[in-house]
Amino acid sequence: MRFLSMVRINERAGQRPSAQLMEDMGKLMTELSAAGSLLDTAGLQPTAEGKRVRLSRGRQTVMDGPFTEAKEVVAGYAMLQVASMDEALEITRRFLAVHGDDWDLECEVRQVMEHCPEAA
């Protein structure tokens, strides 16, 4: 099963990853990739560099970031391939633990809906 673990941060806190955090995260990602549990991961640019596209009553609008109404934003993600939600949570806990005591983050973990072939 595939799971998406989305890292949420308070973008206004201004925290930046240290060189040590990047090194430790790299080691964890290498380990999980070699085990086949980590399919993909990345951090996201700040919302100031993003856009939102909204569809409302058939009309689309584009809004430039930053998105001031959002207190917490998705700052990164990890796509996991594991046997259960419990395994996905364990890996997510490991990602969070690498950050140490100075960070205030949370991850939302959700199973990816697999494609269902159409009934014949």
Uncertain ranges: none
Proportion of residues in helical segments: 25-40%
Q: How many angstroms separate the termini?
A: 24 Å
Radius of gyration equals 17 Å
Order of helices and strands: EHEEEEHE
Give the strand tally: 6
Protein structure class: alpha+beta
**Rough shape?**
flat
Amount of beta strand: 35-45%
Summed up, the helix count is 2
Strand order of the largest sheet: 2-5-1-6
Could you describe the largest sheet, including whether it forms a barrel?
Answer: 4 strands, antiparallel
Instruction: Give the rounded overall mean pLDDT.
Output: 91
Can you walk me through this structure?
It contains two helices and six strands. It is α+β, with helices and mostly antiparallel strands and 120 residues long. The strands form two sheets. It has a four-stranded antiparallel sheet. A hairpin with a 2-residue loop joins strand 3 and strand 4. Helix 1 (19-34) runs antiparallel to helix 2 (85-98). The mean pLDDT is 91.
